[in-house]
């Protein structure tokens, strides 16, 4: 028969010892697991500590480098500040010079503006005077143009009358010369008629032959001279009509004495 009563004083109720053994076993396993985890953590911590120490060493080195860079940066900054201060000083001096130059330029511009205004006033006065004078001259020009037109018409009329007068004189000279030559030709023809009548008989012909020949030559020369005179005077008349000057000269003719 199985005893189911609690085992006093270790059990308050039946099975407490067995349950405690199980719990103890579980705790041992948990302790073992915790021990393994601790060892793993310790190993990993050693690795991490080594890495951190290496990182710290590197950081210290970088800090030294950064310190050197910082010193260099401070030196460079000091140089840049000095350079900037020098540039600022130069810029201030340049600005001061530019302001002085600008003031001088403004003063000069004011003088120029005053001069321009005075010149513009003088120009306007001169322009008004010019316009008044120009209007007067324009009116005078119109009057003179009208007078010139009238004078041109008068001159044209005088020129036409002068041409007509020159032509009239040339024709008178021509007619006079032609009349003289026609008279000589008529006399020569009359004398030839008489001489030819007297030499109609065979016995008298030799006696008058030389005279007849001389009068025929004379008549031929008179006719040639007549043609020449008419042609020359007609040429002069045409030249006068064409507007040529200095054509009013009497033609020199050959003196043709009768035989």
From TrEMBL:
<keyword id="KW-0436">Ligase</keyword>
<keyword id="KW-0175">Coiled coil</keyword>
<protein>
    <submittedName>
        <fullName>TTC3 ligase</fullName>
    </submittedName>
</protein>
<dbReference type="InterPro" id="IPR056872">
    <property type="entry name" value="TTC3/DZIP3-like_helical"/>
</dbReference>
<dbReference type="Pfam" id="PF24525">
    <property type="entry name" value="TTC3"/>
</dbReference>
<dbReference type="GO" id="GO:0016874">
    <property type="term" value="F:ligase activity"/>
</dbReference>
<feature type="domain" description="TTC3/DZIP3-like helical">
    <location>
        <begin position="11"/>
        <end position="259"/>
    </location>
</feature>
<feature type="coiled-coil region">
    <location>
        <begin position="17"/>
        <end position="108"/>
    </location>
</feature>
<feature type="coiled-coil region">
    <location>
        <begin position="219"/>
        <end position="246"/>
    </location>
</feature>
